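The following block was generated as part of the benchmark described in Methods. Ligand: 2,6-di-O-phosphono-beta-D-fructofuranose.
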Amino acid sequence: MKTLRQYLDDTPCEEPLKDLIELIAYQSIPIRDAFIDNQTYAGTENTYGEEQAALDKWADSHLISVLGKSGFVKAIASEEQADIVKFPDAFGDYAVVMDPLDGSSLIQVNLAVGTIIGIFRGGEALQKGEDLAVAMYMLYGPMTVLTITTGNGVNTFALNSEGLFVLLKENIQMPEGKLFGSGGIRNEWLSAHQDFITLCEQKGGKLRYSGSFVADFHQILTYGGVYCYPAAQGKPEGKLRLVFEANPIGFIAKQAGGAISDGKQDLLTVVPEKPDHRTPIYVGSKSIIESAESCMKGC
Ligand code: FDP
């Protein structure tokens, strides 16, 4: 079976980028090993005022330490850091954007959570999503899987018993499926979003929402449909972040034939204003995202 390295060797990626991708992908092993000792909350809040899980903090400091020492990376924008972490002496010129542990509320209940990563060339972390060189996530479910694009299609690898990522699914295309899941509190949804969810139901859609963006997206990538975390009354920016969550996942969605939108525009074309730029998110099969945009138009 083709290993991650063999796959990377077939891409036009430059050698340091291949090394950086492998380095990050295999951090899934120590991160997964850290679950057992980091089950609860850390007693601290991140820059967004959200309670940090111990594993959020562990994965964040682990990845920053490994990437800092590697010399490949000039800058890291992490969901768990208020400011961009800089490595001016790095020999490499990549910038990494990351959500070290997405879906933290599910750690204690042993549902799937993941690590979301984007890599830019040029050492600058606040770039448009469409300019990503690489988008990937490691999903810690019954298997540990890596879904990755380097801009030439989407592939998923599974970590085998020898600790190697081997190809599981090649050239993934997202079907026009009917799953839908929406975050937020129904009573606080805008009426246009309510209309969109009603439309999904009228079209025979089936509700699927776990509370882990990366896991819910993995399901949408496989079966088709839509994941959304909308704007709400008093929260026009929604909950999720453009830089660490929407852009890497949206880049993968687009490479698989899907789309990502804030309800009005392709999120991959938006220049981030700051690391913690939040945005409403609709990501999934192309025609459902078009329906979301028609419902949200003018609201
Ligand atoms: P979490 O804060 O637990 O890391 O953006 C973070 C996120 O989870 C997403 O992974 C998830 O889809 C969403 O928030 C869950 O929010 P709700 O608890 O409001 O549903």
